[in-house]
Amino acid sequence: MKKFILALIFLIISCATTGPGGKKSLILIPTDSEVQIGKEVAADVEKSEKVLNNTTVQNYVNKVGQKIAKVCDRKNLKYKFKVLDNDEINAFACPGGFIYIYSGLLKVFDNEAQLSAVLAHEVGHVVARHSIKRLQAMYGYVIVMEVALGPKMGKTARQMVDAAAGLIMQGYGRENEYEADNLGVLYSKKAGYNPKGMIQVFQKFKAMEGKPPNAFEQLLASHPPAKDRIANANRQINKVGGTDLPYYEDEYEVIKGQLQ
Ligand SMILES: [Zn+2]
């Protein structure tokens, strides 16, 4: 019995990984299982959404994303960045590092630093394991593991995958959004971009807030108001620096020309 309890304690301790900033949190779903779930959710996303049919744009977005992945705090994942052909203003991260951005959001940006800021925010959600934690909280460990361990997926597990993308798209609530914003500012700067790109994005969001009805309201429903995110991101920029770094406007202009 004693041996069993010791084994259990060991299991729990070994699962308590250190998150960004040394924050301890209890993670029950192992990384390889998280990747399996991410693959299922991503497959579902690509069934219901159209992946943008433009290799130049896809390669460019992936290139910027990989720069962020290289400097983030969870490097043992193979991050994938894809553009969805959709005019809504949205971006989201599935478990395991599968990140999607809508072409509608790409059209809003005017430099690469802004794109890097949004991708880095999404990478921040993956690093802090927000989506897997959310799925685990909503469906329980057993069902989430059932999905990960497939291939005979039960009905409940299937429903979880179907619902997951929608849930993930809604955002994760204030605290997690601020955490992703802070990581986003840090990673964007570390990847060589001016972190004020994040502020510029929020300013665009702020200008849009007063113009209903649009899909944007949906994206922002669980995100804090833009003016609060600006204040928070400015505090983080003061800490991490990098305001003399470039924005890369010319590179982005070329890509924007590919989007009609
Ligand atoms: Zn977010």
What do these coordinates show?
The protein is mainly α and 260 residues long. It has one domain. The chain contains 13 helices and five strands. Strand 4 and strand 5 (98-102) form a beta hairpin. Helix 5 (112-127) packs across helix 10. The longest helix has 18 residues, at 31-48. Residues 1-18 have low confidence and may be disordered. Residues 121, 125, 171, 177, 180 line the site of zinc ion.
Please outline what is shown here.
This protein is mostly helical and 260 residues long. It has helices spanning 2-15, 31-48, 55-71, 103-106, 112-127, 130-139, 141-149, 155-169, 174-190, 196-209, 215-220, 226-240, 249-256, and strands spanning 16-18, 24-26, 80-84, 91-94, 98-102. It has one domain.
Comma- or semicolon-separated keywords:
globular; mainly alpha; 13 helices; binds zinc ion; 3-stranded mixed sheet; 260 residues
Distance between the termini: 66 Å
Unreliable residue runs:
1-18
- How large is the share of residues in beta strands? 5-15%
What is the number of helices? 13
- Percent in helix: 55-70%
Instruction: State the order of secondary-structure elements, H for helix, E for strand.
Output: HEEHHEEEHHHHHHHHHH
Tally of individual domains: 1
What structural class do helix, strand and pairing data support? Answer: mainly alpha
Rg over C-alpha atoms, rounded to the nearest angstrom: 19 Å
Shape: globular
Q: Overall pLDDT, averaged? A: 85
Ions, cofactors and other ligands present here are:
zinc ion
> Largest beta sheet, briefly?
3 strands, mixed
Q: What is the number of E strands?
A: 5
Spatial arrangement of strands, main beta sheet: 3-5-4
